[in-house]
Amino acid sequence: MAKVKGDIVVDIEKCKGCELCVVACPQGTIALSDKINKKGYHYMVKIKDNCTGCENCALVCPDAVITVYRKSGKKKEKVATISNVQKDMTLEVN
Amino acid sequence: MDESIVRTEEQEFLEEDICVAENLVYKKPKTLTDIDLHYCPGCGHGVVHRLLMEVVEEMDIQDKVIGVAPVGCAVFAYNYMDIDMQEAAHGRATAVATGIIRVLPDKLVFTYQGDGDLAAIGTAETLHTCNRGENILIVFINNAVYGMTSGQMAPTTLPGMVTTTSPFGRDVKTMGYPLKMTDLVAQLPGTYYVTRQAVNNASNVRKTKKAIQKSFQYLQQKKGTCFIEVVSNCPSNWKMTPVEANKFVEEKLIPFYPLGDLKVPKEELK
Ligand SMILES: Cc1ncc(C[n+]2csc(CCOP(=O)(O)OP(=O)(O)O)c2C)c(N)n1
Ligand code: SF4
Ligand code: SF4
Ligand code: SF4
Ligand SMILES: [Mg+2]
């Protein structure tokens, strides 16, 4: 998997398929779907896993339908290292 | 070997899900209601509504702000901005805002107006409000046409630009020259901060937001009239896709209406 640093969530039913986000994305992460939403618009979808969380798409979206996440700081965070595990033991991370 | 112990490879449990609260960097402001905007796809009005409400949320001034909505496509602005708002007759928004700020001087009052509204029918109100230096913010959405009424020529229409009432292009000899309201109001002693911005790309959107932030701060300090022109689009009446319309903004409108500050506070000049 690519070094994903960001991600987006789109409210597809509110999207009007204007495509402004698509041209604003420096990564080519997003495009319009072939499918349409209830309003009849081709909505925006992620087509690649290379979002950097730069916010450009959300900034130009006139309908405020994009939420952006970005992982701060270094690489992936190590949560736990497990070596010896007992059978029937339930493991909970976090 | 103790059967109950399963030897695992040293396993690292990694946090994979990026969409968690602590990673949130951009979200629709709460001060924007959940009602679907009635604007055409790609219309700049939506972007400017959102920026205003982002600033209101971030500055925590929701209970202090009063907006005045225009006549034009943004006539329903009060449905989308979750703040106190008053509708004004066509062109009269700054006169209504004057009334509000005189009665409630501690409120942060702004008008939101199109170019037909502010630069045609409302020219007198706009110039005199700026000349009196009323402590309000005027947000002027210049999309070079009368959007709501189906794309007639506005005072801001470019020379040669085709509209429904200038089907052969605006001929300045008979139809006059484009009126640069922002340049005019910058000359008046009452204005404190006058700037021209755009929302056709992410970088310009960021700058427009800064201008809105600054303006509300100046209003809090009771400095006088702040005026922000936003060079915007009207894909429907320009008969373009939103992407083409924003390209037209970049290539045709911005060269004629150059972006940047036209008047900055004296104390901020280096
Ligand atoms: C007194 C009066 N005159 C004329 C009209 C018709 N009218 C409605 S909106 C409009 C112009 C809107 O253009 P603009 O202010 O540029 O807003 P836009 O729709 O482009 O955002 C006009 C002339 C009206 N509603 N009231
Ligand atoms: S946040 Fe940036 S990289 Fe990610 S989809 Fe939006 S514009 Fe593209
Ligand atoms: S900018 Fe917004 S409304 Fe336009 S296509 Fe992208 S997500 Fe949809
Ligand atoms: S007519 Fe023009 S200004 Fe009005 S909502 Fe449609 S695109 Fe926007
Ligand atoms: Mg207009």
Structure description:
The complex is a heterodimer of chains A (94) and B (270). Chain A is mostly beta strands and 94 residues long. The radius of gyration of chain A is 18 Å and the shape is elongated. Chain A contains two helices and five strands. The two termini of chain A are 23 Å apart. Chain A has a single domain (4-81), classed as Alpha-Beta Plaits. In chain A, 36% of the residues are buried. Chain B has 270 residues and is an alpha/beta fold. Chain B has a single domain, classed as Thiamin diphosphate (ThDP)-binding fold, Pyr/PP domains (Rossmann fold), CATH 3.40.50.970. Chain B is 35% helix and 22% strand. Chain B has helices spanning 44-58, 77-80, 93-103, 115-121, 123-132, 172-175, 181-186, 202-220, 235-238, 242-256, and strands at residues 5-14, 24-26, 65-69, 84-87, 108-114, 136-142, 145-146, 152-153, 191-198, 225-231, 260-263. Chain B starts with a strand and ends in a 7-residue tail after the last strand. Mean pLDDT of chain B is 95; it is low at 6-15. At the A-B interface, strand 1, helix 1, helix 2, strand 4 and strand 5 of A face strand 1, strand 2, helix 1, helix 8 and helix 10 of B. One iron/sulfur cluster binds at residues 10, 15-21, 44, 61, 63, 65-66 of chain A.
